[in-house]
Structure formats: C-alpha cells, structure tokens
Automatic annotation (TrEMBL):
One of its GO terms (biological process) is phototransduction. The lineage of its organism: Eukaryota, Metazoa, Chordata, Craniata, Vertebrata. Residues 31-287 form the G-protein coupled receptors family 1 profile domain. It is found in: Membrane. SUPFAM superfamilies: Family A G protein-coupled receptor-like. The keyword Transmembrane helix applies. This is Opsin 8, group member a. It comes from the Eukaryota. One of its GO terms (cellular component) is membrane.
C-alpha cells in the first residue's frame, strides 16, 4: 500500500478515533433522521424557510451515511481503505456536503434576517417555490466546486494523518493551479458564507434589541424573550464556526508551511478534523431548540412591535392601546390583532406572521 495512505497515528489513537467517529455517526443519523421524520409528518404545514432546515438535515445525514463508514473502517484498519479511488470519492463527497451545509446556513441566516422585525407592509414572505429554487442552486454550486479538482483545477489528497481525504492543501505552494483554486475556494465557499452567517444572526439580535427598546416600559416584561432569542442567534451563528475554525486554521497552516509539514504531530491535524465532524450532531439540536422554544416568542414580540407601530396619536388612544396590550401580555396575541384591525386604523395593517 502507498505510504501516504498509511496511518501516521498509533494503533491506540486510531482505535479511539474510530470509536469517536462511530458515536458521532450514530448520533448524527438519529438526530437528523428525527428532523426529517418530523418534517415529513407535517409536510403540508412546512413554511418555506423550514425547507432550508430540512436541506441542512439532508446534508448532515448524507455526510454521516456516505463518508463516516469509510473513515471508521480505515481507523480500525490503521490505514486508508481503497487507495486513490476511495480517496477521490471521499474528497468529492466531503466537498459537496460541506459547501452545501455552509451555504444553506448562510441563506438560512439571510432569510431569517430579512423576515425578522419587518413591518406588515414591507415584510418579506418567501414562497416554497422560491426557497426550492435557492436550494437547487446551492446543490449545483456545491457540485460545481466539487467537480473542479476532477477537471484539473486543484486536487484531492489524503490528510496529513493518513485516515481521511480532502482538498490537497499542501499543494498551495507547488503550483499556480493549486494556489488559485484554494484561494478561490476559501473566499467564495468559506469566508464570505461565514461573514454572512455572523452578519445575519447578530443583525437579528440587534433588530430584536431595538424593537424591545422601542416598546419597553414598566409594564412590559420582554427582557427574557430578547435574551433567549439572542442566545439562539448566537448558538446558530457560532456553532458551525466553532466546529470548523480549528480545521480551517490547520489547513491554512499546511498551505503556507508545506515544507514543515513533517514537524507537526499527526494528532494535531487529526483533532480539528474530528471536531469539525461534530457539527452534524448538534445541528438537529439547534433546530429543535430554536423551533420549539423560541419561535412562538419571536412571533409574539414581532406582533407586539407591529401593534405598537400602528398605535393612534392621541393620548387617550395610546392609553387604551397600552391597556389592551398589557391585558394580552399573558401569552395571548388576540388583543393586539383585534386592535390592529379595529375601525379607524390604517387600512391593510393586519398582522402578518413570518417565519
């Protein structure tokens, strides 16, 4: 067997790496399968943005099913199984699912940013057909980048520790071909999507913070709602970045220090790779926590903001509005909705819920 496919780790480290990957694979399959089953049961009720969450679950479970068995087997074998052919397959699948995942998260963030806090007249409402087209575009985009190494721009190769395959990061300094591919891939498929995720979710947190301030009084106790929604935003935006940042750092170090590759302990290159794979496990947890804990609170806060933005100008009407909102603050939005549609209000100002 080619030496580049022999494990650079000790048999003990390989064994425990295989156990870890096996656990990650099981949890990922079960968690994402639960998301897909839940979506299938309410397929007719799914709102357009929820299709992005379904797509994210498909990429995560696809990665667990198509890639993890090969890496687990190779870890227990103490050498990569299948040689060049399986390495090419593994790198191809990794590119497709990784790019699809990060682009889906970026689009999901932008969709939620656009619909959060929008007033009824100018609010964004995405159709399922529109989101379906966007998802198809994401898969085509990922497939195109995955095919480039097969067409001669860039290449796939084994990771330094010998039990995984990815882009040949060490080829960056060897040719202009590799350098241009890696830099283009890094900017268009890593840095820009990551900046979009950070901007979108912290933008959501800022919108909700400003909305809370605009309606804050001694009678409104919405601080906890704001904190929980902000926490969800931080979880979603930071979870993926935390998982993949160590891998990106090590990969970029390999790019610019290819001649010093032998001086880095193989286990140092292994750990970021294992940590990155954990992202397929907690994505389903984020989905369930966000959807079932915070969505109804987000909608309640949005409705309250919309309601207050349409309140009458006279002090008497303002007092009446505040009284009705306070009475409905026990969890019912009916007072606000009724007031929005009351005679004498602005036409077309009914509450529009968004997801």
């Amino acid at each position: 067997m080619d030496d580049k496919y022999m494990s650079k780790l000790s048999p003990t480290v390989d064994f425990w790496a295989g156990i870890y990957l096996f656990i990650i694979a099981i949890l990922s399959i079960l968690g994402n399968a639960a998301v897909l089953v839940n979506a299938a049961r309410r397929i007719t009720l799914l709102k357009a943005p929820e299709l992005l969450t379904v797509n994210l679950a498909i990429t995560d479970i696809g990665m667990a099913l198509s890639m993890y068995p090969l890496s687990i087997s190779s870890a227990f074998n103490h050498a990569w199984i299948g040689g060049d052919t399986s390495c090419l397959y593994y790198g191809l699948m990794g590119m497709i699912f990784s790019i699809t995942s990060i682009m889906t998260l970026a689009v999901m963030g932008m969709v939620r940013y656009l619909v959060t806090g929008s007033p009824p007249r100018t609010g964004f409402k995405f159709q399922r057909r529109t989101i379906s087209i966007v998802i198809s575009g994401i898969w085509l985009y990922a497939g195109l980048w995955a095919l480039f190494p097969l067409l001669g721009w860039g290449s796939y190769g084994p990771e330094p520790f010998g039990l995984s395959c990815s882009i040949d990061w060490t080829g960056y300094g060897e040719s202009l071909n590799h350098a241009t591919f890696i830099m283009s891939l890094s900017v268009l498929c890593t840095f820009l999507p990551c900046l979009t995720i950070v901007f979108a979710y912290f933008g959501i947190a800022w919108k909700l913070h400003k909305a809370y301030q605009s309606i804050q009084s001694n009678d409104f106790q919405y601080g906890n709602i704001e904190k929980k929604i902000t926490l969800m935003a931080v979880m979603i935006s930071s979870g993926f970045l935390i998982a993949w940042t160590p891998y990106v750092i090590v990969s970029f170090w390999s790019m610019f220090h290819s001649l010093e590759q032998d001086h880095m302990a193989p286990v140092i290159t292994l750990l970021p790779c294992l940590f990155a794979k954990s992202s397929t496990v907690y994505n389903p947890l984020i989905y369930f926590v966000f959807q079932r804990t915070s969505s109804h609170k987000l909608l309640r806060l949005q409705r309250l903001v919309f309601c207050c933005s349409h309140q009458a100008s006279s002090s008497a009407e303002r007092a009446e509005l505040e009284s009705k909102i306070v009475k409905g603050s026990d969890g019912s939005d009916k007072a606000c909705v009724g007031l929005m549609g009351a005679p004498g209000r602005h036409p077309g100002s009914e509450v529009t819920t968004v997801s």
